[in-house]
Amino acid sequence: MDNSGFCNDDYSGGSSDDDLVDLSATAQDLLEDPPDDEWNRGGPGYTPGGGRGQNGTAKLLDLLDDGLHGVGTYDDFNTIDWMKEKSKDRDRHREIYKKKNQSVLDLLLSVSDAFSGWLLMLLIGLMSAHWLTDLKEGVCLNGFWFNHEHCCWNSKDTTFQERDKCPHWKSWAELTLGVSEGASAYVVNYLLYVSWALLFSYLAVILVRAFAPYACGSGIPEIKTILSGFIIRGYLGKWTLLIKTITLVLAVSSGLSLGKEGPLVHVACCCGNIFCHLFTKYRKNEAKRREVLSAASAVGVSVAFGAPVGGVLFSLEEVSYYFPLKTMWRSFFAALVAAFTLRSINPFGNSQLVLFYVEFHTPWHLLELVPFVLLGIFGGLWGAFFIRANMAWCRRRKNTRLGRYPVLEVALVTLATALLAFPNDYTRMSGSHLISELFNDCSLLDSSQLCDYTSQGKGGAGNASLSYGANFSSGLSERAAGPGVYTAIWQLALALVFKTLITVVTFGMKVPSGLFIPSMAVGAIAGRLLGIGMEQLVFYNHDWPIFKGCSSSTKCITPGLYAMLGAAACLGGVTRMTVSLVVIMFELTGGLEYIVPLMAATMTSKWVADALGREGIYEAHIRLNGYPFLEPKEEFKHKTLAMDVMRPRCSDPPLSVLTQSGMSVDQVEALISDTSYSGFPVVVSQETQRLVGFVLRRDLVISIENARRMQEGIVGASQVLFTEHTSAQPYGGPPPVCLRGIIDLSPLAITDHTPMDITVDIFRKLGLRQCLVTQNGVFFLLYLCRRLLGIITKKDILKHMAQMTNRDPESILFN
Amino acid sequence: MDNSGFCNDDYSGGSSDDDLVDLSATAQDLLEDPPDDEWNRGGPGYTPGGGRGQNGTAKLLDLLDDGLHGVGTYDDFNTIDWMKEKSKDRDRHREIYKKKNQSVLDLLLSVSDAFSGWLLMLLIGLMSAHWLTDLKEGVCLNGFWFNHEHCCWNSKDTTFQERDKCPHWKSWAELTLGVSEGASAYVVNYLLYVSWALLFSYLAVILVRAFAPYACGSGIPEIKTILSGFIIRGYLGKWTLLIKTITLVLAVSSGLSLGKEGPLVHVACCCGNIFCHLFTKYRKNEAKRREVLSAASAVGVSVAFGAPVGGVLFSLEEVSYYFPLKTMWRSFFAALVAAFTLRSINPFGNSQLVLFYVEFHTPWHLLELVPFVLLGIFGGLWGAFFIRANMAWCRRRKNTRLGRYPVLEVALVTLATALLAFPNDYTRMSGSHLISELFNDCSLLDSSQLCDYTSQGKGGAGNASLSYGANFSSGLSERAAGPGVYTAIWQLALALVFKTLITVVTFGMKVPSGLFIPSMAVGAIAGRLLGIGMEQLVFYNHDWPIFKGCSSSTKCITPGLYAMLGAAACLGGVTRMTVSLVVIMFELTGGLEYIVPLMAATMTSKWVADALGREGIYEAHIRLNGYPFLEPKEEFKHKTLAMDVMRPRCSDPPLSVLTQSGMSVDQVEALISDTSYSGFPVVVSQETQRLVGFVLRRDLVISIENARRMQEGIVGASQVLFTEHTSAQPYGGPPPVCLRGIIDLSPLAITDHTPMDITVDIFRKLGLRQCLVTQNGVFFLLYLCRRLLGIITKKDILKHMAQMTNRDPESILFN
After folding, report:
1. DSSP classification of residue B316
2. b/e code B467-489 from CB counts within 10 Å (16+ = b)
3. Tens of pLDDT along A591-632?
4. What is the pLDDT averaged over residues B413-438?
5. pLDDT at A181
6. Which of 454-513 (B) contact A at CB < 8 A?
7. Does residue A748 sit at the B interface (CB-CB below 8 Å)?
């Protein structure tokens, strides 16, 4: 570039590991392996000339090992610049592609580069499915090494129907139950249940606190934030993976009202992140890595629910920020592999990828749309209530002394849960067991309490209630509820209230806790209750004109379907999913013919919930934590201009800028220590403020640090030069520090009169971290240049948005 | 604004009708209803001050009737500016929202505005479903007013199985068949078939040519282009709707190798576009209208296949350009309504939304993945071959004399189709009938030729072939093919070749022609052949170790499943859909358990086809027609800079600009007539070229035209002023024309060193039409201003992309 030789400004991009980059260590590394490859500079500043790349003769090793230095990486709890990262990756790709005809090695490199994405997806799909299904949720009495499926397979005496009740398989919580039989043993069982629950939850919270504080909660709010371009180091690391997996099993086994689906998404993303380290392309590029994480979250749902298409849509609709079609195909492939792996592992034992397989296929009636919409309204109301209550509780936890005793909190909640849950059959069983019980339609041989119908003639002269038995006579189309059903109704109603209240305080505790299963359980209870009500209404009033359609021989009301719709409605009300929820539900249950009722219930639920509060539970948690998340769903509605948002404001001191020449190292360091801005514009001179480019604070700090250590003769009085031609260096003085390589020469600039709605759109769509604001110039004196006025960062925009909606702008904590 | 009173520059946005806006007519309208509402100016130029909106006291009527003038609209065959349109809509929304507390009427207006989107979706869902299912594909012999379902419902003698063979219902093509029975009648039937086909196709092509030339073809390439922001007036108009519906029925009935699914998407979009005229919000805003059209295309697929979720995904993956989550929810709702309407109309007569319902649910074996992947490879190869062959044929049609005789071409192709199709059972039947026949698994009572299996003992001593009968003995797990199956194999192989060749020449003719059914038919044939082959291979070699899993009592190979996968693979190879295709296929068949095989076949097909050519059939047709479509899927890989693409180039004359003051009307008109640019930058003066804003050519022409007609004293020497303060007007001279209102004051500008990959990204994501290029300035002398260098338009980018991939840049025809 130039012959002076001491301008080590060619530091490339490259990303960071789990740990914060240690500056002194990287400077040491620099001594051993000085980077001289030209093409890598595509990172922070784009190469200005078109012909630059030709002399790029980077060695293969450099290609793989660049990014030893911190330039172009990000601090923890900071936002990435999508444009920059994607541009870096395109540069890298172009270079590999161009060299592919030079040697066989280069050709192989290019081919492996092209396929590494698919290979990574294959690995994630394979390993996540294995890892996630290997959660030992119980123990096999025939041999502890068997999993659920193999345990029950080996014990030949179980039929297909009874696979859940295979006697040799005991979940951890069940293990202590039933040790003593008889009427007096109830108290013993009760005590055992409670102490077992306390032990498990205590272990879980202790492990989380000791080894991986990030392992708590659902993880989806943080993953949404990370995918939108935020750095949280260690959030997707190996310790989080390990501890979250262990504590998730403990938490689920302790009988707390929580599910494993949300945390499984987090675990899958950890898997994805760890596999990213195998491939330079993904290790070194934050944008590419986020594409992989989007796919991993699809895999998480795919495995958790056995719903591959639903997983892809979940990632698209709920989790991802940037989801191009290419990522969609990759996610699809990863979900395919995961689903296929799941099928070969066969964890549910019925060689179908269906968790809550429903066996009824009775058609529904138009009339039933009314109760379906009612369920949607219930789901929406419940979702809105849950979000408000949970937010109020979490805010109290955050702001009062409660938050200081997380272990005690978990212990108390577990104690309350266990004490209240044991007496009621429907709360004692696990959430997913409860859901599949409620989704189930009563077949002829069903012995459950919910299926205790009296067999009855057409005349309606009720008698002969077969207690806890099945009715073999007069078909299933005409059913009056027996005493078992009435008992079940009361128990379910109590369970509904209990589950609602306990889930409010459980979600957000310092243990892994998902929300899918608890909210589905609440919805399923409500749905089943309504379904039984409808069924009895039709039974006792089948002469009403509106029930005319029901008088035929086919069954009319299927309470299991109501439970399914209620579950969808409540889940929709809490998470505000629509399309993905419908797809997940019908992949979950196999009920393709119920797509219209599902859509009706889900849409109603979303409308009702949105009318009561715009945010879903995940967005609410993101806001509570103050993460810088620019919601892609909501439009910016106010009529402000970029000049109202940019820093500095009119009253502030003027913008701190660097000049392209003339500043000494001391001056630059003073500027850095005096200000807290995350970047500085470089201008030609203080007088004109004409823009040259933009330098990130972090890059500047690292580069000066490196220069001081590496370059001889650098003192406080050395000049810092951002110019291209260093011929103007002062002879006799100390050698200058050339930092042109770290300038971004084409930062995006908008004019100060750009409306904020357009600015927000630009930030959102291009994934910017900051944007310069220049003066349009026309309103001032003629012949004034288009001057640099200020900078808008993502944080400024979020603060502005908070202000416009009367929230505290200081709640946005991070950059 | 100012007191001079003659500055009628507040022309608002608002979009155009089907017809090109007649300038003189709009000027006439202007006389009757001069617009003085301030807030409407949000259109072309953003209101510079924040406090402007307060004095907006727009009358209700103006609110509904603005946009009488052409300012802010687009010419035919031009690209829209998404940013501008969305900003316009936000301004409109903000205004309505702000006023909602002023009066009850305003409140109602605001509520109706919020719900108009959903109402529109409801209408589209309802009407499209009714319109599309009312296509009279045949006639009921019991009474011509019955549709298929009612016809067969009334004739009580049909069972569920036989619903397709209901004797009273005759499709148009069947109507003449079988008029005479007996051996000698074959020739009569043949002749009738051919002449019937010729009559229908002749009618179709004549109607298309006479009334609606846009009604030909599939329509999906054009809809993709329109959705990406292109204007083709009349493409979605009422004549196109009417003629396309009629000719589609004719073309399908004529027995040509074409389907109705693609055209149905076009028809649904026409419905959507026509309904848009009911709502000002959508009539006047091109971006909002495109959101509706995206949803309408989802409705089209939802109705055509009975696949609501698949429809939404099809719109997302294949058709739409800008598909925010809000549009996804709306599409989802519209698809829900359409599916629901479809269910209540019940066109397929089985109260399920399933077109090709498959009744088998036999599990598949791991080993079968090999043939499934083979089918995927076949699909990919076939797709790539089809695209190349069809492109070559279409290019020939376009460039040679062939294109001048479209009626003759249609007649010849119909003649060839009819002559060759009649002798073969499988080509004579309609495409969808063929597919459902091939998807069907042989049940016990099936009398089809394909189900002619010999019943046989375990030993394999073949005998007792029941000709065209069913085998009642020894279960279905062991089947040797009988003579009927062997005949079918030959006929299917011939049909495969015939269908492939004839579809190549059919797709792109001047009749409505879809591609889904023909390519699915080809795939289904190939799949069924492979399925029968596999079945026989397993049957004769069930002692091979790899077939060990098959020796159990369950059925091993299901040829119908192979047909299903083949259909998906071929459709995927042609259209390159992935996720949407899988969802459509399993909604189409109800085969939820076959999602992994479907995914495997589809992914393989896409990989193979992509390796042979990057473009799907729709993209290829878009390129053939020279539409300005910026493919969102493909990355720009070259290392060029914005300065290499912008106009003017170095060798060109300098950029034509307007100055903000000092130009006369004559000068501006001379500039307009001398150049063909679609817009002009406005600069402070010719010397500095410092940018003020940007003016679109069309807006300029219309405004000057209006001023000449409306404003007194405007002559050629009148000054054109773009300044805000008109105090500098020359006293004594003719009054000036104030055109500040049409300037875009904050046009997006990039520097000349911005890499093209980033520029393409910005264009794609923000939906820009043009972008200004300014000089970074640092490479030149100090104290020079950041100068305007040139403009990049979408067309420039597309031409540059064509050039970089060694295609003819002149193939991009439109702006």
Report:
1. I
2. eebbbeeeebbbbbbbebbeebb
3. 667 878 898 899 899 989 998 988 899 999 998 888 888 887
4. 88
5. 58
6. none
7. yes
Q: Which residue has the tokens 């609110």?
A: B63
The correct CATH number of B642-811 out of 3.10.580.20, 3.40.190.10, 3.40.640.10, 3.50.40.10 is: 3.10.580.20
Q: What is the model's pTM?
A: 0.82
Nearest by CB to residue B639, choosing from A53, A309, A590, is A53
Contacts of A578 in chain B (CB under 8 A): 328-329, 332
Q: Are strands A663-664 and A679-683 parallel, antiparallel or unpaired?
A: unpaired
Distance from CA of B485 to the nearest CA of A (A): 31
pLDDT, position B685: 74
**Which among B309, B745, B750 has the least Cβ separation from residue A583?**
B309
Neighbours of A459 (CB within 10 A): 6
SS3 A774: strand
Mean pLDDT across chain A, nearest whole number? 76
- B663-664 and B658-659: which strand pairing? unpaired
Which helix (H) or strand (E) covers residue A772, if one does? strand A770-774
Pick the CATH number of B103-133+216-348 from 3.40.50.10540, 1.10.3080.10, 1.10.10.10, 1.10.150.110: 1.10.3080.10
Question: Nearest CB to A50: which of B308, B592, B640?
Answer: B640
CA–CA separation, B613 and B71 (whole Å) = 42
Q: Which residues in B756-793 are b (16+ Cβ under 10 Å) and which e? A: bbbbbbbbbbbbbbbbbbbbbbbeeeeeebbbbbbbbb
Q: How far apart are CA B548 and CA B332, in angstroms?
A: 46
CB of B114 within 8 Å of a chain A CB? The answer is no
Taking CB atoms and an 8 Å cutoff, what residues of chain A touch B329?
A: 578-579, 603, 606
Q: Rg of chain B's alpha carbons, rounded to an integer?
A: 31
Task: Give span(s): CATH 3.10.580.20, chain A.
Answer: 642-811
Query: If we measure between CA atoms, which residue out of A81, A71, A73 comes closest to residue A19?
Result: A73
Instruction: Give me the DSSP letters along A210-229.
Output: HH-GGGSB--HHHHHHHHTT
Q: Which parts of A560-678 are beta strand (E)?
A: 658-659, 663-664
* Any B CB within 8 A of A777 CB: yes
Q: Is B625 exposed, middle or buried (0-12, 13-18, 19+ CB in 10 A)?
A: middle
Cβ pair A48:B745 closer than 8 A = no
A50: nearest CB among B586, B592, B641:
B641
pLDDT digits 0-9 by tens, B580-638? 898 888 777 776 678 788 988 998 999 899 989 888 999 999 988 888 888 877 778 78
- The pLDDT tens digits of the residues spanning A240-268 come to 999 998 898 888 888 889 888 888 899 99
Inter-chain residue contact B746 with A766, CB threshold 8 Å:
no
Fold of B366-625: Clc chloride channel (1.10.3080)
Question: Whole-angstrom Cα distance, residue B3 to residue A695?
Answer: 48
A706-738 tens-digit pLDDT = 888 877 777 778 888 887 665 555 556 677 888
